[in-house]
Design goal:
This protein is of the alpha+beta class. About 45% of the residues lie in helices and about 20% in strands.
């Protein structure tokens, strides 16, 4: 339905339009399925028959994944444990959370990727409820167990489980709960009756939203906005509170006449919009509630499911897929009844021009007299981006093009870019593709991510045509997509290795940016070693061939390739690998057949110490004490590295002293690292820097804490804070902030995100520079109290 034909509602409430007539022919109601839809027009996962208790094969749960238009991508019978929740990652992998706390990860085509567990406590107490959430750290999972405790993993790619504090006296599951993100810390907000509790890493606190009505009642539903900035709370009296997720400011409230608990409540708002609205869904009724005292109610023909988006809400049902949004300002200005906005007049002028009517000149003259023609053109271009129907897009772009003809210096870039963007959007919105991105979502997602999503769906031709149309660089566009295609091609086992290798080479040739070694590595991972070897024949860089051949245990072929390359370092790498892999007799027999490798081995290993010893003697004869001492140290280090290499089967030869110590710490050999520290008299400060850097890279925070307490740090404790923050671990960094000297304490607290304590420290020092530094880090929306405290202190300081 064109936006021109839609009924218009008060600002902030919005209008809806149909994206697709769904092609999935569902026999079940959505309420009888477990549903999860990915944001940004992503795929839809359905689990059918999940609530049935029969054990017959026909009643086995069925997991199906559809495009947003309802086309089936893949399906599998569910043979694993009882599922509690489905959810999607930011990279469009499906998370299946089981009752025992196991999380299974599948791709878009129901192909299993991996699994992980949420810990023993979850296993023992089972999962009552689960939520998949997104934050700046990545995709996370939150679990409510049978013991009414919460467990979190903020990033499933770097799994670190957190058990949240207990809620005192909690004997039953909370009526509703949500995961929030405040100051880069993930917290849980839960409701028990009329009380709200906030769980952070260490404590449980009772909170009261500002401006909450005294007669609000008990909480039954809560919703966090797509950007995590806003929170909505619904009570059993029909009262809806809307405010910031920090619970520091109320935005508006709404009184609803329906008292029964809803199925869903989600936010519906555009980025940077001043209008606020939530959509509340019951079985066959939908309410859009905003800052206005009157909401809009829709009667639904079918059971529906709401999917929150960046700029609106998708509404799924058995027969249709619709999008509800706040009307963009440019569209509202142009299409509202009797609009005199410059964009509306320009659109009318263009229509009259096509009719060859003189009214076109009248409309155009009116715009030009007000000097609003550039604004009119920009308004039409912007409104075209927000339209879903190609006919309306064309009408608006024709109007913009018509208006540009009467402007001397209107820059064409915005018009050309919008035409390109709309062509891309219309291509992916096609029913067969089924990615209904809006212009706002597309700009947030970026073309690079969109191309990745087309590749994930194996829509390689469309992705390549887009790259060519947008004239993206080879490496960023076509080459990358062809490489993905080749990696997919090697998984197809219906053709011989020779046929697949030739097909890939014929398609890819010498395309810039293509790495045959990466494709060969994928073939090897799929168990096709011979195909991997054939593909490596097309790899022009020996440095890329050799490591994979070694991984495939084709060491002799790797040695031949290394010798052909003429790269002595590469040959030496293979020789070392052979030495560790083969017994002594086989090793020397292999080298006998490769004179170049044998000669190099003798030169670089056996002759090294002797050459250095000769140099040492000469230095002593010349009475060059400094050079003699340095050579002696090098001989000692070389011998020690040789022993380390033999003991730990790791390459230590030719590393610097510092790299040797660092690698030992990274590998967990702390006593050997201490030995080098003492034997080579490494300065304390340098050793402490080396050790904490290596421990942070290793992620061994427990060992770092022990080390910090072993004796007084010669480098202070600010480096501990800086390194922990650098590795995105503010929880560990906070342990060291109080131990930092007073003159560095403000910086430490700012680094860990504790602006309140940073402000206290700056005020205690009576240092205006430090106060200004903390103020510069304060956000007007979340740190108003801290800023006010600093401003008061600064004012008092200036009075003195």
């Amino acid at each position: 339905m064109s936006r021109e034909a839609q009924p218009w509602h008060p600002p902030g409430v919005g209008a809806g339009f149909e994206l697709y007539t769904m092609g999935w022919n569902l026999k079940e109601d959505l309420r009888d399925c477990m549903v999860a839809a990915a944001p940004y027009g992503g795929p839809i996962a359905l689990l059918k028959n999940h609530a049935r208790k029969e054990k017959s094969p026909g009643a086995r749960p069925l997991l199906e994944i559809y495009s947003a238009s309802g086309l089936l991508l893949a399906s599998i019978p569910w043979k694993s444990g009882q599922l509690v929740q489905l959810g999607w990652t930011a990279s469009e992998d499906l998370l299946c959370i089981q009752e025992d706390g196991t999380v299974l990860i599948y791709n878009l085509f129901c192909e299993f990727k991996r699994h992980f567990s949420m810990g023993n406590e979850v296993l023992q107490n089972h999962v009552l409820e689960a939520k998949v959430f997104h934050s700046e750290f990545g995709t996370g999972v939150a679990i409510l167990t049978g013991s009414h405790r919460f467990s979190l993993a903020t990033n499933i790619e770097d799994l670190k489980l957190r058990r949240m504090p207990e809620v005192p006296g909690l004997q039953k599951p909370p009526s509703c709960w949500a995961v929030l993100s405040q100051d880069r810390v993930t917290i849980v907000l839960l409701a028990v009756g009329q009380d709200l509790y906030l769980l952070d890493n260490t404590s449980c606190s009772v909170v009261t939203p500002p401006g909450l009505s005294p007669s609000a009642g008990a909480y039954v539903q809560m919703a966090v906005s797509f950007t995590h900035r806003c929170l909505a709370l619904l009570t059993d009296t029909g009262y809806i509170w809307m405010g910031l997720a920090s619970l520091k400011e109320k935005l508006c409230e709404f009184h609803c006449s329906i008292r029964s608990p809803p199925k869903q409540m989600v936010w519906c708002m555009r980025p940077r919009s001043r209008q606020r609205a939530v959509v509340v869904a019951w079985d066959r009724q939908l309410l859009v509630a905003g800052s206005s005292s009157e909401g809009i109610q829709f009667v639904l023909d079918e059971d529906s499911y709401l999917v929150p988006e960046l700029d609106g809400v998708r509404i799924l049902s058995r027969s249709s897929h619709e999008f509800l949004q706040e009307i963009p300002e440019a569209s509202q200005e142009i299409f509202k009844i009797a609009s005199m906005a410059p964009g509306a007049l320009l659109l009318e002028a263009q229509k009259e021009y096509e009719k060859e009517s003189q009214k076109a000149d009248e409309y155009l003259r009116e715009i030009k007299e007000q000097k609003l023609l550039p604004e009119a053109v920009s308004q039409c271009i912007e409104a075209a981006g927000h339209e879903h129907e190609p006919d309306t897009q064309k009408a608006l772009l024709r109007a913009a093009s018509f208006g540009k003809c009467f402007l001397d210096k209107f820059p064409p870039e915005s018009f050309v870019r919008m035409c390109q963007d709309l062509r891309v959007l219309n291509a992916i919105r096609d029913y067969q593709i089924g990615i209904p991105l809006t212009f706002t979502q597309y700009k947030r997602l970026t073309i690079e991510v969109l191309l990745d999503r087309l590749v994930l769906r194996r829509l390689y031709p469309l992705a390549i045509r887009m790259c060519e149309y947008l004239r993206l660089s080879e490496i960023q566009g076509v080459s990358r997509i062809l490489a993905h295609w080749a990696c997919y091609k090697v998984q197809q086992k219906d053709k011989s290795d020779e046929e697949v290798a030739q097909a890939i080479n014929h398609k890819l040739g010498d395309t810039p940016g293509i790495s045959y070694s990466e494709i060969a590595a994928r073939a090897y991972d799929c168990g096709r070693t011979e195909l991997a070897i054939k593909l490596l024949e097309y790899e022009p860089r020996s440095g890329e061939q050799v490591p994979l051949l070694l991984k495939m245990k084709r060491s002799k072929l790797a040695l031949s390739k290394a010798i052909e390359s003429g790269d002595t370092d590469l040959v030496y790498t293979v020789v070392l690998h052979l030495k560790n892999e083969l017994n002594r007799g086989t090793f020397f027999m292999t080298l006998q057949n490769q004179p170049v490798a044998l000669s190099l081995y003798r030169q670089r290993i056996e002759g090294r110490v002797g050459a250095l010893q000769n140099a040492l003697d000469e230095f002593y004869k010349a009475k060059n004490e400094f050079a003699a001492k340095a050579t002696e140290e090098q001989i000692k280090l070389l011998r020690l590295q040789r022993h380390l290499q033999e003991d730990f089967d790791k390459p230590y030869l030719d590393l610097s002293l510092h790299d040797t110590v660092s690698n030992l710490i990274l590998d967990g050999h702390h006593k050997r690292a201490e030995q080098l520290y003492r034997e080579f008299k490494i300065p304390d400060k340098r050793y402490w820097w080396l050790k904490i850097s290596a421990l942070a890279n290793r992620g061994d925070w427990e060992e770092m804490e022990k080390f910090s307490k072993s004796k007084k740090s010669p480098i202070g404790y600010l480096p501990f804070v800086e390194i922990a923050v650098k590795h995105h671990n503010r929880y560990e960094a906070k342990k060291y902030a109080p131990r930092v000297p007073p003159e560095q304490r403000v910086r430490a607290f700012v680094l860990v995100g504790d602006l309140d304590q940073a402000a206290d420290a700056a005020i205690e020092h009576k240092n205006e520079t430090e106060m200004n530094f903390v103020l510069s880090k304060c956000s007007a929306s979340t740190d108003a109290a801290v800023a006010e405290k600093l401003n008061r202190a600064r004012a008092q300081l200036l009075k003195k």
